[in-house]
């Protein structure tokens, strides 16, 4: 087997470079050295082995390229509903611009909507855009056949007519009410950033707020959080 084939086989077989090295450590090695890390170090330097050892740099570079290809493939496979955009509603036009970035995890968008439901009740909600994208058919929204309706299962829902409220964390955000200040925060689970939706609070480089007018809703606001980095 040539070196390229060996590298490909190792990358496919092992999650990490350490796992690859461990596969070549024998019981006698551990009995003699009594230290797995030392065994790994000797193997990586091609000591104490009659086999050709793949370099860490080559393993990790190939692993990263393969992961990038898989991610790119998954992104291409995702159906982009905003390509069907036909409505003139400004909210939907702005959300169409953000669909790919939300699906890719570059940004995490929260939509605030206040509107009147089919029962004639005034309702509002903070909505996890990515979560809704993955659980609903957004073609109907982008073509204007259907309006986004605040739901009790959204991050935060309030029925102004009945005075009922509900808070529900999602796969992307943890709802964190502050009982002392009566504020509501949405904490991004990917990087721990806390979004304060209070309009009087200035935004920073990781948060963008867009208040929209001339939409099909009583009130519509978009909060874009630029996802920084995963929590270690």
UniProtKB/TrEMBL annotation:
Top-level taxon of the source organism: Eukaryota
One GO CC annotation: cytoplasm
Keywords: Cell projection, Cilium, Cytoplasm, Flagellum, Nucleus
Record's subcellular location: Cytoplasm; Nucleus
Pfam families per the UniProt record, alphabetical: DUF4464 (PF14713)
Main location: cytoplasm
Record bears the keyword Cytoplasm: yes
Keyword ATP-binding: no
Role of this protein: May be involved in spermatogenesis.
Name used for this protein in its record: Cilia- and flagella-associated protein 299
Organism of this sequence: Trichonephila inaurata madagascariensis
Lineage: Eukaryota, Metazoa, Ecdysozoa, Arthropoda, Chelicerata
